[in-house]
Amino acid sequence: MEEDGIIVVGLDIGSTKVATIVAEVFSSSINIMGIGTSETSGIREGIVIDLQETVNSIRRSVDEAQNTSGIKISSVFVSISGNHIRDIESKGLVTIARPDKEITEEDVRRVLDNAKMIVLPSDTEILHILPREYIIDGQSGIKYPIGMNGIRLEAEVQVIVGSTPFIQNIRRAVQGADLEIEQLIAAPLASTESVLDPDEKELGVVLIDIGGGTTEIAAFFDGSLRRLSILNFGGKHVTYDIAKGLQTPINQAEIIKKEKGLAMSNLAKEDIFIDLQLLGGRGEKPIPQHILCGIIEDRLQEILVMAHDDLLKLNLYNKITLSIILTGGTSNMKGIDILAEKIFTTTVKTGAPRLKDIKGLTNPLSDPSFATVLGLIYWGKKHYLSGSRDRRYANRKGDWFKRFVHFFKRFL
Length: 412
Prior knowledge:
single chain; 34% helix; 12 helices; 19 strands; six-stranded mixed β-sheet; Dna Ligase, domain 1; Nucleotidyltransferase, domain 5
């Protein structure tokens, strides 16, 4: 008999689009049942700037995912971004007082709670506590202390914090769309769930997710997060540079960026010209492709240099940068890996979401722009299948006939 699946919904609130995925998760597979996307102008650089527009964008995306899946969505795992999110190193310490000295789940909970006892500004709150390693009676490098014996248990952790007002605005937007939040997940962590595998995290890897309004950085070594940061620059800034530099409407700048853009001007051909629509309806004029690509290269180089400089803050930088993986929608730009290799002086590759053991509506998900929202599904799967299956807010499987009709409508 097939095991019962759990319905998990991921909601990625990005700076250019809102994406929703409905999935039924099992211990060994994930079935993608519905996908919805909606453009948004209510978010800028990960921050809500128009609450009602953000609510409306969430509703449009969720409605599309409900229609394609036949699932009534009531609760979601939600991504959160913006450069107010940062990491802090912390340590916890507890004593094992029981006569047998065996370390239990309760001891691990206590030591992590102790590690949370850090002084934070009143407008800052904790999003995640991520253990890097445990230390038992001075012995470091322990990943799973439960069942071991000791007197003194320590934990070195990475604490992910964010600004309470910005976090509250995301909560208000989701709740305004009549949804409950199961968990808020820092967007870079979600992306790593869908793009990176355990071996990469163990050997040393940096994931750089270049989205619409932000660039998110997550660095791993020895299987643990060592750096998380978010830069307030992304693909939308490339578009604005094109619009300003070439005096063309923003929507036209976005189109030519995607259709004709290259990450390095020396990749452009001298004999290729682009018919450029001018601002104010002043007609068109042809421009050489290398002019467009020069504008793109300048901004992408700036973003990648900022990411490089951010990583230099790590003592383990040389070990971690054994591998640089680019993801997010902007990583689709041809030549961006070559540009990044010049800056990081190491091998760079583009990382699309892993689709192994994923069934159902998988075609759109091979695009790096879906890394975060698919990562939310992986996060939800891990959250439920590794712990309690009890849920406060259940997503319902709904009307199976309706699901049958919507499935076949996609092929008409």
